[in-house]
Amino acid sequence: MPKNVNYTVIGAGHGGKAMAAHLALMGYPVTLYNRTPENIKTIKARKGIELESFPGGPHGFAKLKKCTSDLKEALSEAHVVMMVLPSSAHRELAQACASHLQDEQTIILHPGRTCGAIEFVKVLSDSNCSASVIVAETETFIYASRSIGPAQAHIFSIKDAVPLATLPATQTTKVLEVINEAYPPYIDGGNVLQTGLDNMGAIFHPALTILNAGWIESTKGDFQFYIDGVTPSTARVLEVLDRERITIASALGIRAMTAMEWLKMAYDAKGENLYEAVHANPGYYGITAPNRLEHRYIFEDVPMSLIPMAALGKRYGVETRAMESLIHLACIIHRTDYWRRGRTLDKLGIENFSVSELTRYVNEGIRP
Prior knowledge:
Layout: E1 7-10, H1 14-25, E2 30-33, H2 41-46, E3 48-53, E4 60-63, E5 66-68, H3 71-75, E6 80-83, H4 90-97, E7 106-109, H5 116-126, E8 134-138, E9 143-149, E10 152-158, E11 162-167, H6 172-179, E12 186-188, H7 192-197, H8 201-211, H9 213-219, H10 232-251, H11 259-267, H12 274-279, H13 296-299, H14 301-315, H15 321-334, H16 338-341, H17 345-348, H18 355-364
Parallel strand pairs: 1-2, 1-6, 2-5, 3-10, 6-7, 7-8, 11-12
Antiparallel strand pairs: 3-4, 8-11, 9-10
Helix pairs in contact: 4-5, 8-10, 8-14, 10-14, 14-15
């Protein structure tokens, strides 16, 4: 039976295809946008996406309402705009969307990584966006999914619970009321500092990619990223990164989830340590490693996750040696300066905020 919430999914990659197809199979009118017409040519011709899934999961041919490379058209009838693309594109998309957004629309970043909603709201303001919109972010992406063809996607698993928060946090309940019919797993994430600092991609993605760099280059990613790539030694590095993240959150008055707690919440995966918990997660089996080091696990997660975390640590007195080491290695591998390219506090407009001022901003939307 058709549903009355119009969704627009921005991005037709691994996640965007899966989300658009799943929403369409649930009966929602779905518009899929990708800026490159060639990337959605087959989907447009077929007017939909063939979705495969885990046993008992959503599957079948998902007919889309619209498939377009015209951003104005994509946003014109949307109630909820799902941004499903690397967070390194959020700034550019916010600039592009600013003149096309309409009052009462909701934009959800899937995920925001760290400080994603703060960046998006600032860019909309700097771009003189006149529409009254709600900007939200999720702590992680709800699916483990892959694009398996020009008009095909596969969902490996769907997380049991995914925190979501709006900026300001006073709008979170309103957004959840709209999307929980389609997505019961979304829960109140507190505020966008909480969701941003509970960003597990920052802990898992760059470290596992960099620590397995030789294996990735020699095999072109022909191994299971989490199962083969997480060994006892690499898991210990992840644990140190995780402790730094939790300490940064504590300095901001936030009780962040440990990686172990997150694996239990999202996948019901448990163990005596992080190595055991990762290997106890059935959702990680079958997910292969990146086939090259020019991958979003570095070029997205370092500047959009580790950089703002390390910057918050420096601003509020927390040592982040492990994070800084990974950032330096990423700069060397990619021959670039991620410290300059990343989400620094001055770019976010919060460089002079005290802890109480930052907390008031994310909770109530009031800037000092």
